[in-house]
Amino acid sequence: MILEMKVPSPGESITEVEIAEWLVSDGDYVEKDQAIAEVDSDKATLELPAEASGTVTLKAEVGDAVAVGAVVCLIDTSATKPDGAADAPEPAKEAAKEEAAPAPKESAKQPDPKATYATGTASPAAKKILAEKGISAAAVKGTGRDGRVTKDDALKAEAVPSMGTPTGGNRGTERKKLSMLRRKVAERLVSAKNETAMLTTFNEVDMSPIFALRKEYKEDFKERHGVGLGFMSFFTKAVVRALQMYPAVNSMIDGKEMISYDFCDISIAVSGPKGLMVPVIRNAENLTFRGIEAEVKRLAIRAREGEITVDEMTGGTFTITNGGVFGSMLSTPIINPPQSAILGMHNIVERPVARDGAIAVAPIMYVALSYDHRIIDGKESVGFLVAVKEALENPEELLMDNNVKKALEM
What we know:
Elements: E1 2-6, E2 16-22, E3 29-30, E4 35-40, E5 45-49, E6 54-58, E7 65-67, E8 71-76, H1 93-100, H2 124-133, H3 151-156, H4 180-195, E9 198-206, H5 208-225, H6 231-245, E10 251-254, E11 257-260, E12 266-268, E13 270-272, E14 275-277, E15 280-281, H7 289-304, E16 318-322, E17 341-345, E18 348-355, E19 358-372, H8 378-393, H9 395-398, H10 404-409
Parallel strand pairs: 12-16, 16-17
Antiparallel strand pairs: 1-8, 2-4, 2-7, 3-6, 4-5, 6-8, 9-19, 10-11, 12-15, 13-14, 17-19, 18-19
């Protein structure tokens, strides 16, 4: 029986996917539920499992855009599983000899001082290397038999650059098709830049109080809950508080209307193997420090392992991105449409600050809020960022209701 495998729907509004990689070859025997392909949608990369056991016949190439519901391969379910496949023949042994095998003993000998027909002649592998370097074989002293230029000679050869010419270094280029996910991200970023009145406001946060809390409680927190006490829970709590104070920041434009939300679904930017992923922490206003840290860890792991689903990345009302993990000091993050604002965290650096008329050193983080000026005014954007700063610099009172142990034990 021949089974037609069709592209399943990854989620609402997705009409096609792209074959990112075939994990099997045409004619291979596959087991039921074995992953046979990776497909890119405009929101995520998903694995395509075999619907039955049998011999597979591929009907699409890597890079092909395939409509949802279209046939991508056939599985002959009547085929029997082979007892054991013979090892594939070794490809191009003769061509590989020169690449992999050590130079023959004769190559170690000094060339005959008398020139022969082979003097200055490059082997095929050496010729290719010299061509890439832009070096003439005649300019290289060969150490092979009868003065032949070997691969090793070509690798060691260095071009002598002249004024105004390339130095002889590698100048190759590579052209590779962007994945559907990367193309969609690019489209969304350009759209956000072109279709919103985006501005960015900045502030700085003295992280000393949070450093002190983490130093005192992080070991007990991890032992009790099985997750670390990171910065993301403090920032998420501070953002939720500020969103409740400034509801316009927790809104978005739909045509001629503004939609405001009485809940806080916080998107967090995560770098995954296929590019930027933005999973969502649902109803963050109801989560404790433990709940936020556990959800951040769960979503980050799923994103990095390519298991995140479209539903887990849909519907956020505000985004937090942390460029500080990569060493960024300051940036202007781009709004994640259709949201109206995004908060950028950055690296924490010890900087001089003024305290009570004296200079002190404190761990300072610069924060940036990019927002859509069409619905968020300067007063609201600045007030929002100041509210975030105030909560982070006074977390015991504003985020923990003056009861640190209770806040961290829940």
